[in-house]
Each structure stands twice: as C-alpha cells, then as structure tokens.
Design brief:
Blueprint (H helix, E strand, L loop, with lengths): L3 H12 L1 H13 L3 H25 L26 H17 L2 H20 L5 H26 L8 H4 L4
C-alpha cells in the first residue's frame, strides 16, 4: 500500500533538508553567538569546497534524474561528485553536535539527513558514492573547523593532538 501524499512530504523534506537544518542550526546557535558566526563561516567554507571539488572531479550525475521542483542542473551543477545536499546536511549535523552535545538534536538531524540522502538517491540525482563522499567531506570540514574554533576562538588547546600541545608554551 502506498501513500502518495506522505511520500511527497517525505521527499520534500529530503529535498529541502539542507535549508531546514541550516535554519534550525542558526536558531539553536542564537544563545551562543560565537558558535553562530563560526557556523555561518564553516557552512560557507564547506559549500565553497563543494564547488571546487565538483569543478575538479567533474563526475556527472546519474542518468534519468527526476525533477522535484523543476530544478535545472546545468553548468557546474551538472556534476554530482560530491553531493552538495549530503555535504551540507552532514556539515550542519556534525558541527551542531560537536558544539551543543545534544543527543536529541543529533537524532533529529540524522533523521532529516537520512531523508535527504534517500531523496537524492531515489530521484537519481546522485549515486551512493557521491552521497557518501559528500557526507564524508561535510563531516570532515565540520570536525576540522570545530577544532580550529576551539583553539583559536575559545583558546582551548585540549583539542590539539598531544605533540602540538607541547609547542603552545
């Protein structure tokens, strides 16, 4: 038995997952302005890295992609590696969890991220490999940025590896 209305809503949430998580993360960071500003910088940097990687790798999207809202994938957007949807949701998910340490929000973010990955695969906009690489790159950028923020913004050197800690005196 299928439920077209529910499936459509699921797919819309997946398609707009990056925007949904971005807005919710900004609201969550309002009480912590340093994290808000660094998150905005981290997110922008991650998307810039995505543009560079797509232009460098130039792996096309799968054939037979289904349009969700009449989107046009021409120019640089014709490339699917890495998935910018996957990269942005995992960038937000990872940075939010590291900054806030909330398991409840992590579960919510994982739910939205999984809908996003499913939608991008089901509509044949990305291969599993493109989604996995996007998720990996987004998470790595978030982890690296979080460590940098802890050290240079909050001056907490405990996030540095031990061999670098000894050089901070």
């Amino acid at each position: 038995m299928t439920f077209p209305f529910i499936e459509y809503q699921r797919d819309m949430i997946g398609f707009f997952g990056p925007i949904i998580l971005f807005v919710i993360a900004c609201v969550r960071f309002i009480p912590r302005p340093r994290y808000l500003w660094t998150y905005l910088l981290v997110f922008s940097t991650s998307m810039g890295i995505n543009h560079l990687l797509k232009d460098w790798i130039r792996e096309p999207r799968p054939d037979g992609g289904i349009s969700m809202v009449g989107e046009d994938y021409s120019g640089y957007f014709q490339y699917g590696m890495p998935s910018s949807h996957a990269q942005s949701v995992f960038n937000t998910l990872t940075y939010s969890y590291l900054a806030l340490r909330s398991v409840g929000w992590l579960i919510f973010d994982l739910f939205i991220a999984s809908l996003t990955l499913y939608q991008r695969w089901y509509y044949r906009r990305h291969t599993i490999k493109q989604l996995a690489v996007g998720a990996f790159v987004g998470s790595c950028v978030a982890i690296l940025a979080y460590v940098i923020v802890q050290v240079w913004v909050f001056h907490d050197i405990s996030y540095l590896p031990p061999f670098l800690n000894s050089y901070t005196d």
